[in-house]
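Example 3.2
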Amino acid sequence: MPALWIAHVTVTDEEAYGKYAKLAGPAIAKHGGKFIARAARYVQLEGKDRPRNVVAKFDTVEAAVACYHSPEYQEALSHAKGASERELLVVETEE
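Structure, written as tokens:
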């Protein structure tokens, strides 16, 4: 079943995070992920407000997790660590 990769992010270092974003998009696409929301308008109703929210769709939970652990994404992630506060989860959809 399809899965959504959902990230909630507060960027603390724009330059370093820009390096992450430049590498993360191609890594996600290489693993079959397609962005369906990225830094778009949002309304925070509950919980911690994170001004950058990203949703990508993958074919399966396993594909999304494999992407996260891939060398390409881990290289991108090395630029986000220390440059952001973030939560990331993968959830299976009911489609």
